[in-house]
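Training component of the fellowship. As part of building independent skills, the fellow (R.M.) carried out the full modelling exercise for a liganded target. The chosen ligand was iron/sulfur cluster. The inputs are recorded below so that the supervisory panel can assess the work.
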Amino acid sequence: MIRKKILELKKNKNAVILAHFYQIPEIQDVADYVGDSLGLAQKAKEAAADIIVFAGVHFMAETAKILNPSKKVLLPDLEAGCSLAESCPAKKFSKFKKKYRDHIVISYINCTAEIKAMSDVICTSGNAVKLVESYPKEKKIIFAPDKNLGSYINKVTGRNMVLWEGICEVHDVLEAEAIINLKIQNKEAKLIAHPECKATVLEVADFVGSTTEMLKYTIRDKSKKYIVATETGILHQMKKSSPEKEFIIVPTDETCSCNDCSYMKMNTMEKLYSCMINEKPEIIMEKDIMDKARKPIEKMLEISENLNLV
Ligand code: 13P
Ligand code: SF4
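Fellow's submitted model of the complex:
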């Protein structure tokens, strides 16, 4: 059985498997840690194992390598990218940045190492609001690459950050109209949404947060039913933690309720097994770009620790 083989390899090779909540349930169930981008970055930094197997997408594995460069970091499928990271090419962003020379750059972790290297500090959906609030109100800020998360932070904090116009193709397609219809049909349900969703969706949400925060909310909240506006993978842990509760994923249109991130779902148990046995594909990066990108990520981890976001 492939699960047993993966667990054996993990032990024999002194490897740790870090998985994001959007991975398929079978992968989540063999992982040592399942979490959001903030938790995964923290675990990657402190990992003592010889090999970090990253069950997630490319920018996440890159972050793990940057934070722990002496470790071998494996990604089951190197093609597992991210529409949001792709929506912010380094050359275009560099030009954009030059227009706002007196601004600092806060970048969402869902970006390439090149964008991180051009940033002053990184944030995740789990710490973005508090991290922005840790800067004085008059500080001029560029926020990249997610315009939905950026405008949500602007609204909550009363800032006027300049936003790069990037989107996540999984969250940005979720429409308020479909969600309101679901709310009408399920009056007792709470709507929980990821901040990568459009403002029209976030405005009608009962709770907005990162995947970890959404999961924690469903555990502590007393409701029995939730309408979930994010990627389907998160339902696995929600159902595991609260088997008595009902979770309805927001449909992308009338015919499909499968909000799968095609990049996250490139990883399969077979690819996970294969990458562990062959110790490839491996994340290989230039030292210079790693050194430049490490500073703003470490700054984020330091601020998060001071703000008790760990
Ligand atoms: P978090 O799990 O950090 O909330 O991020 C969601 C996401 O889209 C990751 O790609
Ligand atoms: Fe990127 Fe969106 Fe997929 Fe997350 S869900 S990896 S932001 S495309």
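The panel noted the following from the submitted structure. The first helix runs from residue 2 to 12. DSSP finds 15 helices and twelve strands in the chain.
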